[in-house]
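tmp note - Winged helix DNA-binding domain-containing protein
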Amino acid sequence: MHRIDDEQRRVRLGRRHRLAPSTRASSVPAVADAVVALHSTDAATLYLSVCARLAEPGVGPVERALYEDVSLVRLLSLRNTLFTVSSEVAPSVDAANARAVAAKERRTFLKHLKEDGKGLDERWLAETERQAFAALAEQVQATGSQLSAAVPALRTKITVFPGTRQETVQGVASRVIRLMAADGLIRRDRPRGSWTSSQFRWTVTEPWPTSTTAEAQAEVARRWLLSYGPGTEADLKWWTGWGLRETRTALAAVGAEAVLLDDGASGWVAPGDLAPEPAVEPWAALLPALDPSAMGWADRGFHLPAGHRATLFDRAGNIGPTVWWNGRIVGGWAQRADGELVWRLLSDVGQDASPLIEAEAARLRAWVGDTRITPRFRTPLERELTA
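out:
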């Protein structure tokens, strides 16, 4: 069996994820496609991940891609989490993941409506969605509060988990809007605040072209292999949130080729992707919490020393801001309240790394400007650095 060692995996990461300076992208969609999907639960993460890989970083290009060209779109998809993908990849991710997520979200909400006991049912939900869509089409752009003001049904409150310790009263507006977005009827538009805000306005949109789930999953698997391969079956299963059968079917459909990894496990690459990747120049990167390069595999042993996990991850398994050197995670960074960028190295990287890490910090400071960034998922090291 052909072998791809850990060093070659790190070379691939630096080149294919556009992290080495000579490989940086000239457009925002090219960045998204290089990593397939950008984690977007934290609004700032999207911008930080893109700009780390752009030849000319800045908030403006990302905002144009999201809200003017709509060449980037947010989808509730992989692992039932909000991701941003290019408009070229969106139909595949929609059919491969988002449709199933939307169906599950709807079943869960209808169950809550039934348990509430007010007689709210599928017919009520359909009519509420129709009214909300009509109001949004008329307003062109609106926040959830503005839609609720226009549609009385959105101001309804229900009791969820009645009779249990988790019993609570919730408004339905956010749940209904989330369902409409999951179904591709509406999309997130410009936020009310700055680019770090998650208080989005909403606008109507067109559903994505349909394809079969199997075809779409094969396409997503192919793209993942090209960006993250070699990776194991468990890596792809975890990254997508698919079941084992779906994962194996997708790998077989794309014709993935088996390779041997340094730890003795069997990995997979895209068909014909066995040749050694050309080396890149030495590189450093300051990547945000939940960046794709840190979250692309279930087993991160080839780029993350086991001893670093306790300080770089929160208790839920979310990785914080990281410092990279030549394909390895070697430390973490944070931004203090006064705007100062600080970092701590957890690995001995030698003298050659220091000037390149300093240069990346200066590059980040230049485009972030006066904005202050606090990760939504805070880790022990990030908290220490900002204390």
